[in-house]
Amino acid sequence: VLPDHLGGGDGIARLAALAGIEAAEGLAAVPDPLRRLGAVLRNDPAAARATADRLRLSRAERTRLVDLVTYGTSVAADVTAPDMRRAVYHLGAAAYCDRVLLSWAAERAAGGDRHGASATDLAYSALIERARSFVVPVFPVSGKDAAALGQAPGPEMGRVLAAVEACWLAGDFTASREDVLARLGHEIARG
After folding, report:
1. How many other CB atoms are there within 10 angstroms of residue 103's CB atom?
2. Counting beta carbons within 10 angstroms of the beta carbon of residue 44, is it exposed (0 to 12), middle (13 to 18) or buried (19 or more)?
3. Which of 48, 51, 87, 165 is the most exposed place for a label (fewest CB within 10 A)?
4. What are phi and psi of 90, to 5 degrees?
5. Quick one: pLDDT at residue 42?
6. 78: number of Cβ within 10 Å
7. What is the tens place of the pLDDT at every residue in 28-79?
């Protein structure tokens, strides 16, 4: 079913590294078959889609597998805390942890450990813990707030809200609702 899409020896090495990491992190009791499949497949979204179709995965499983293969090794061990929080805000903790685990496995399998094995392991493990414990904040304003400030519904409202949200994210979620409302008013006035 899979020979054409496997990542060869690299994929097997990533899988072995992932299994070891899952055991060390207490995740081996209930292994995640999609994450493990993502570790084995080569970095080819089309191949991941073909594999998902061949295995008759659900749409959600297919989307997750393609994400794992496409972005699974995109997290560096030394990612900053604000970048981690923004990623968890956009992806959710589970998807972000998948990316961390696959990045960690790829780095371990490649032997490309610029920090030293224990430092890298500690950094990735800490990322997983921080991502799991991060309480994702809710964007403090909505379309109702924009309408109350005079913004007509439509694409421009979406643009204004996205610009304000980008500022809020850049500030690491620290702006108060009042500050975000003031920024929203400013964006609406700029038109």
Report:
1. 20
2. middle
3. 165
4. -80, -40
5. 85
6. 12
7. 888 899 999 999 998 889 989 999 999 999 999 999 999 999 998 899 999 9
| Cα–Cα distance measured from residue 46 to residue 49, given in angstroms and rounded to the nearest whole number | 5
Helix axes 93-110, 117-133, angle to 10 degrees: 170
- Phi and psi for 41 in degrees, rounded to 5? -70, 150
The owner of tokens 């409202």 is 157
**What residues pair up with 41 in beta bridges, in sequence order?**
6
**From residue 116, how far is each of 26, 59, 107, 123, 162 by CA, in Å?**
22, 39, 11, 11, 40
What is the crossing angle of helices 45-54 and 59-71, to 10°? Answer: 150
- Measured in degrees and rounded to the nearest 5, phi and psi for residue 105 equal -65, -40
Mean pLDDT rounded to a whole number for the chain: 91
Q: Which of 15, 187, 8 is nearest to 109 (CA)?
A: 15
Residue 115 tokens read as 């920090």
Give residue for tokens 């500030």.
Answer: 171
Which alpha helices (H) appear in 25-116, and where do they start and end? 33-40, 45-54, 59-71, 81-91, 93-110
Query: Over the stretch 102-158, which tens digit does the pLDDT of each residue have?
Result: 999 999 998 855 555 688 899 999 999 999 999 999 999 999 999 999 999 999 999
